[in-house]
Protein 1
Amino acid sequence: MHRTFVVILFLLMSGLVAQQFNNTLDKNAQKDYTVETVYNSIAKSPYIEELIKEVSKDSILATLKYLDDMGVKNAGSATLDAVGDWLREKLIGYGYEVEMQDVTNRGSNVIIEKKGAKYPDKKVIVGGHYDSVTSGPGVNDNGSGTATLLEIARILKDRTTDYSLILVWFTAEEVGLLGSKEYVKKIGPDMDLLVMFNIDMIGGVASKKGMPSAMTHVTCEEDRGGVSSNNAKSKKYTDTLVMVTNTYTSIKTKLDRAYGSDYLSFESKGYTITGYYEYVPGGNPYYHKPTDLLKNMDVDYATELTKGALAFAATVSRVEATPIACHRQTKSQSVFSLSKIGSSSSITLQYHLSTPGIWGVQVFDITGREVAHVLPSFKQAGSYLLPLMSTNGSRCYIVRPTLNDVSLGVEKIFKVK
């Protein structure tokens, strides 16, 4: 995480220095100014649920241990070059073609791309830097992001996405965002980029022996300055990041502005951005110090946020679902029940509510795709019909109801004969 310490000696007036302030404030200290988000979570996709189960704490830990053993890996060093080569070999081992983009005397950006099956010209970029400062090994800043990107690459390798998904490990973030600036210069201003998702420093702080973890929140970052034309889209994607995180992880979310990391290179050219950054009350005491080591990180926290990052990447790139199991046990629920479901060629779900309230319903087919929903609204007790969209011959459906914006904690699974 690149930060420059500044002292503001005058009031910010008329927005004259707003962008400068946005880019230079000490990011490690600013986290006390965030507010907890109040967005509701979204209904879980069965397929995304299955996907995030593949996130491996052992895999993340192995990457972090390697980076810990490598020590300081500042831009332009032989150590950073070695880490870049190691990343390339790991990705080749996963089956990717890897591009190494040279950044003169500062190392190389490591780049892979999964071409979208339906819309290959539309792109989603997920990135984070892998260099450290000279004063510390940067196992959290940003070995944590490096490990998360590797997990996303590993898990999504053989999944099909509608949009192209690009993963980038940037060099030289700590010396002025040089790697990401070079990458943005390469792609120019005309890439059809939906969003750039930046992952920087999500390893947290290890809890004291015998004490519960203090790592309960993450900061989701949205664009509030710089090029104003992309702020609304950034808010949209950051809202999605918040809801995905609340839905698929145990970590709560706080909202803050984006600054001080590689996404700013994209933002300055008008691209839409969002990002993850850890939330440590009072700031991380190991930041940019020799003590930024694996032993001082909370690996469980990093693993949870890897699940959130994977779920977001899969959601916005529109990963193609694979069939889900149709043999789960369902729980009985007296206030919600199903009956007539029609024929396989034209399916209409009839559901019964035994109590009035704010009811919502989601229906998924065997691939985990949503095929029908009822937005939460007040309904009296009674029976209601819900036609299902085209299902491509699916015979297995999962129905998830909510009452007063709270999941009933049940899945109703039914088959069409």
Note: The domain at 18-316 is CATH 3.40.630.10 (Aminopeptidase).
Protein 2
Amino acid sequence: MLLFDLMVRFGALSLLLFLAVITASRVRQTRKGRLQAILLTACSLSFCGPLIIAIPPPHEPSPVVLGAAKLVASPNIALSFLFGLAVFTDGFRWRTWHSMLLAAVTVLSFISRLPVSATWGVWDQRLSISMALISAGLMIYLLATVIRGTADDLLKSRRQVRLVFTIGAVLTAGSSLGAEWILPELAKNTWQAFLGVVFAVAVLAWLTRFQQSSLVFENRPAVVETPLDPGFEQLEEALKRDQIYLEPGLTVADLGQRLGIQPHEVRRLISEGSAYRNFSAFINTHRIEHAKARLTDEAQDGIPILTIALESGFSSITPFNRAFRDVVGMTPSAFRREGRSKNLRDL
């Protein structure tokens, strides 16, 4: 059993280090996927920490190596969470709360790995429980994000990855809990190492298809260089003619029903005919153009922005403001003021 554990453990370490090296080598070569590449590199290195910490005797690491491994392992939960968000959330941007989350989880996790003293024992137990709850909360939130975004996702490959991720997360959590209750300590550690192998192989297969030259992070070009599909042009024409985009809560299935085509065909037309990867982003662009025209119309100066947002197809002012800033680069209020100033200058 010991020999098998070491073989699996060092196999997992080798694969994770290999994944970190080839991902790091692409950081400077990919612009839009740079953040994802950095996070995946950090994830791969961080996952090496627990594998080193749990090396069984008589091959256990020295105190210096053990301390370094604990430090490296501390942010792995937060890094996994942030990498998942970066991959499955279109337009993901690094924000202040991401840094705060990463720092807090790293510090708490590192403290929980310190040797337990007589006076620290009770607090150590509470901290361990807190870390388990934080980890579970982050993974549940990520899983909900992955599932919630499936219907809007226009990329077939990424929808498949969402399904695989969901199944894999459930199976991993279930098997880990089962191993914790059933298996002896060495077997539990071996299972942890085996999961490291599965993770590394799965990510390598997804990102590289086992070819370093094809390492990708599902980036799409800003401009579509291929000729537009006639079907996409017809879809756009119908959207604008009938203003279907003004319907609140419009889904892929709803649009397909209005146009008389299947939802998968709607996804294909939009994905291949434009740079959009997300249905909501595609529809919101049309809604924002409609709202912009109304905000710059002098005859509608007295109409509240909330009314314009609701009549443009948005469910409330918050998603409207967020989508407007993403598309236009300023708030609706600032855009309306700027439009008024321009109208006055034109008089």
Note: Residues 279-347 form a domain with the Arc Repressor Mutant, subunit A fold (CATH 1.10.10.60).
Protein 3
Amino acid sequence: MTEPTSQSKSPIDQRSHERKLPNAAGKRLLFYVLGLCFLLLVVMEIKARRDDYRVNYYPPSTDLWVAQWLELENSLPPDQTVVIGASRMQFGVIVPEWKKLTGKSLHMLAFPGSPPGPVLEKLAELETFHGTVICGFAPPFSFSHEDTPNRDRMKDNFKAIEPSRYSLTHHLSLAACDFLIPKFKFMNSFAYSPVLLSYSYWPIPNRDGTVIPAVFPFAGSLDRDLQFRFARNVREIMRYEIVAQIQEGTRRIIGHYGTSNIDSLLKRYKDAVAKIESRGGKVIFVRPPSDGRFLAFERKHNPRDKFYDRIVNETGCFGVHFEDYPELEELQCLEDSHLDVEDGLKFTRRLVKILQEENLID
């Protein structure tokens, strides 16, 4: 065999393999990207200010609900009036209008898709609380089976209460939102998110019968105090076909799981009401309007006499069912389930009048 040449033993010149890049390319490209992003944000801010939508904290988050609960525990008077239930109460009971009519503040603890029972029990356990609870019923959610996925939202809220008391992340996050969201209109992600806009206006429709995610197209806003409001031009921007599909999927899921055991549910309501009343508080049950396909579903799966009437009668609490009051029954939901701002104001005024006539509130 031949000996390796001396040339093969020589070290490899690493410089011949170096990749030469322009020294300033990275910085220049970085400035281009930052400049483009800044320009896009300026354009979006100009458009957002022209649209002039309300300050929007959507989507409803655990942080927002927990902040409301901690405020009730730490800052509000023990006789505070609170609202619990699902999103129908968030759309239908207008907090500033309530204060204007009664002279007293109203604290929102309602949360989308959530039953009021667990929150009522939580208020019953809060020994310092002896106020008035406006407990709203949206039958498909209020009387849903314990394993129904919509119940997980409030469970997550409850789990977050204790860690959030001392969580720097929780408090800094809310402080940052409170500082930035009111100042910069483009931070309304519900209205201006490219992903959500693409989803809402995608030209290919969803297949019939598909249970699609509950990602609602932009139609309104969520205030810092959990007050929902439809936008003033909601009838122009509402994507009714997508909302109808989401609602149909929701009804299918709830129908699949079935309803709660009413006897067990009734006992829990009675126990919670008794605790609150023993401290001088009171509970008022409210059934806000629904119509169309939702009302038909509710009458079939959650008949009034087996659910709402039993709870009202056996707890001994006062109840306001929209079907018992012509001035409430005439109100029409925008998409079978929620009132728009104008009808929400009417509902609030008429509800206050009913409760004042019954000497339940001042």
Note: Strands lie at 81-84, 106-108, 132-136, 220-222, 228-230, 282-287, 318-321.
Protein 4
Amino acid sequence: MSKARESLELISLVVLMLVITGCAVKEDKSRGPKNVNLRFAGGAFKLYDEFRRQQAVEFEKKHPGVKVKYEPVPGEFNAKILTQIAGGVAPDVILTFGPMALVDFVKGGALLPIDPYIKDDSDFDISLIYPESVDEYTYKDKIYALPANLGTNALYYNKKLFNEAGLSYPDGNWDWGQVLNAAQRLTKKDISGKISHFGIVISYLESWFGFVKQYGGELWNKERTECIIDSPEAREATEFLKDLFKKYHVSPTPTEIANEMGVGGSIEVFGMGRAAMMYGGRWITSVLIHQKDLDWTVSPLPKYKGKRLGVTGGLGWAISSQTKYPQLAYELVKHLSSPEGIRFMIDMGDSMPIHRTSEETEYFLQSCNRPREENQIYIDAMKSTFSMKDFVNPNLIISTTEQRSIINTELERAFIDEISIGEALANIEKKLNAAIKKK
């Protein structure tokens, strides 16, 4: 054998060993890579931030050689993450705020599908997670996130104000007509003639689509090729919402909430005891459990023509397309979405169970020092819900943020009587149809 050939074979052997060694560092799940830094980001909220830092420490204990940093993002989370993606400095794991954010992130090339990692993971059984929660983060038959929480909505009410008015509490038989009747009796004025207590408070723009769905309306046809919001059902739902604050004035207008009542949202109005009822999601419990002087509970959502329909939704942990360590990022996503992580969200009053286990369900039913029958209402509500995926259209050439802006702008014009509700819905339909990608 010639000296040249011996040298060539030696070099080849060294290269092969380096490749094998390098691959082992990345893929050996038992040993794990060394000196790796992972980052994950979510919306800034003090109590959650502290827990997520604790989750980072727990993950580091299980993965020696890995350092994990949690980065809370204040303000416009989605916009800031997309800016980081564009700049090539995105975190390894990203908190995704529902199907609308998911579509924008996927279209922006921000996320990796996690299906391949789930398929290769013999220790993980995704069937234990509620299908509704998995579906929230499935886009074009690919799963992009595991749930960080799960919730649906209910009718919150102030027991003290009902008692003072001599009214029976809402129950599972109530419809929206009964809510309106009660709200009229619960709306009180002070000696100056100014309303001191409203019958109900609703975040109109955030709640609008839920009412449209319950009234039988749809934003898109089944093929997602046409916007069909200009319908009798959508008009009736929108009219009902507007009548609450405009015709009957049993609910504060957005301007009254922001300016006259000195607070920034419907939750604060209810929490201050200034409204007898509120339409809202499970996560609101995380705020109200700290209102020690507020005597409140919830009832099932009111019906419309015998039909009850709520919205299910939640946040999800996803893998950034820019991560250098996708396998480790997947392990971190699993860790964040683990039963231990979800129990914290349940303790906070933020989440329902996401795992279909009797242990997690029982844990939820006993959570937050709330009555067991109150927590059971949310479990029962999951039988009649829809997903905000119904709001999303992957065929749009605009972002879901722009889609929502179009809708909100036209609704706001209708709510201040600049245009009629029929005109607003017709404008929404026309503008969204113009934004659908033509095949």
Note: The longest helix spans residues 3-27.
